[in-house]
């Protein structure tokens, strides 16, 4: 007996963010063109009027100003319709409290995607998890409309918003200073400088102890004070 395997396609890190137009709770958008010059966290959630998604939207909305201060806009999506979105967001504002957050107004756009066209374009529909709901995908898109990082979560697990903010700051810091961030990096920690390429270059760095610490030619770090990292 033959089986038909569903092929899931999705954009990759370094790809141009797939373009689309959509109806949202904040009006029509042309994505990503409307956000040129800004970072975007484009994320999906499985369904309106579900508890994990509700906790996430309250958290995103309560912390939106933190992301905006980092030149980052939030854009959400689910495969529900516009009127469902509006009713759900009104319920969040009027009735739901989570971790002391209440009367929260969601001001960022939430995309209507009842045809699943956008969700499929971004690989947000994972048939092994659900063929009718989007998983919790997060795309970090830079000011040039390029996808820089992707994080996927299953339906049952809420996202870590401190990590989303840390990842955004790390991407911006790497771009600004031409560095990389090591494991568990937090703003203010030492950063990794590009590989020296030779022992001679590494030796020069090691002699400049004020700036570089080289453990070997391929592993050099330097301080990057928190004041130089955007952490608003």
How is the topology of this model organized?
Layout: E1 20-24, E2 27-31, E3 39-44, H1 51-62, H2 64-68, E4 72-78, H3 82-95, E5 97-98, E6 101-102, E7 110-112, H4 117-121, E8 136-141, E9 147-153, H5 161-177, E10 191-192, H6 199-207, E11 213-216, E12 219-222
Describe the overall structure.
The strands form 4 sheets. This protein has a 5-stranded mixed beta sheet. Strands 10-12-11 form a 3-stranded antiparallel beta sheet, covered by helices on one side. A two-stranded antiparallel ribbon has the order 1-2. It folds into 2 domains: 148 residues, Glutaredoxin, CATH 3.40.30.10; 51 residues, Antioxidant, Horf6, Chain A, domain 2. 27% of the residues lie in helices and 23% in strands. It has 6 helices and 12 strands. By secondary structure, the chain is an alpha+beta fold.
């Amino acid at each position: 007996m033959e089986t038909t395997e569903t092929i899931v396609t999705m954009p990759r890190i370094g790809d141009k963010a797939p373009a689309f137009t959509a109806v949202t709770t904040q009006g029509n958008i042309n994505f990503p063109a409307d956000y040129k010059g800004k970072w975007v966290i484009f994320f999906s959630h499985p369904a309106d009027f579900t508890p994990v998604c509700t906790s996430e939207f309250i958290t995103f909305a309560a912390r939106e100003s933190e992301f905006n201060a980092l030149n980052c806009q939030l854009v959400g999506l689910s495969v529900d319709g516009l009127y469902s979105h509006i009713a759900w967001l009104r319920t969040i504002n009027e009735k739901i409290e989570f971790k002391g957050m209440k009367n929260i107004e969601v001001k960022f756009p939430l995309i209507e995607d009842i045809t699943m066209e956008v969700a499929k374009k971004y690989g947000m529909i994972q048939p092994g998890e659900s063929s009718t709901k989007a998983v919790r995908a997060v795309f970090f898109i830079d000011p040039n409309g390029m996808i820089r990082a992707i994080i996927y979560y299953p339906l049952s697990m809420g996202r870590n918003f401190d990590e989303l903010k840390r990842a955004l700051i790390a991407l911006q810091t790497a771009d600004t200073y031409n560095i990389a961030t090591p494991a568990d990096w937090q703003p203010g920690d030492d950063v990794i400088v590009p590989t020296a390429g030779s022992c001679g270059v590494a030796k020069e760095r090691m002699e400049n102890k004020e700036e570089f610490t080289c453990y070997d030619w391929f592993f050099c770090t330097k301080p990057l004070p928190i004041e130089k990292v955007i952490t608003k």
